[in-house]
Amino acid sequence: MNDTNNTRKRQRKDDGDGDSTDADKQPDKKKDLKGILTSLLLFEEQEKRDQEELDRASEEEKQLFESGHKNKTKAMVESVSSMKARDAIAHNILHHGIGGTRFV
């Protein structure tokens, strides 16, 4: 049942079937290489944009922190000044007889 005239050997891609040559495969390799290089360039460009965005966000965060620190410092100085003013008023009232009270 084994007919030798009808059996064909299956050819592998690397057997060199004669239909395609290395010259035919060269444009495909160049096309693939071009696609890879384009992808790498796009990836690099996206990475640069992401880094710029992170730098910008970091700078904004730093400015907000410094602004908050300045506001907090100003509020603390005002609070201490107010406390000293209240203490001076209380001292004057208590020790100098203002308001009908006098304490020696």
From TrEMBL:
<protein>
    <submittedName>
        <fullName>Uncharacterized protein</fullName>
    </submittedName>
</protein>
<feature type="region of interest" description="Disordered">
    <location>
        <begin position="44"/>
        <end position="79"/>
    </location>
</feature>
<feature type="compositionally biased region" description="Basic and acidic residues">
    <location>
        <begin position="22"/>
        <end position="32"/>
    </location>
</feature>
<feature type="region of interest" description="Disordered">
    <location>
        <begin position="1"/>
        <end position="32"/>
    </location>
</feature>
<feature type="compositionally biased region" description="Basic and acidic residues">
    <location>
        <begin position="45"/>
        <end position="69"/>
    </location>
</feature>
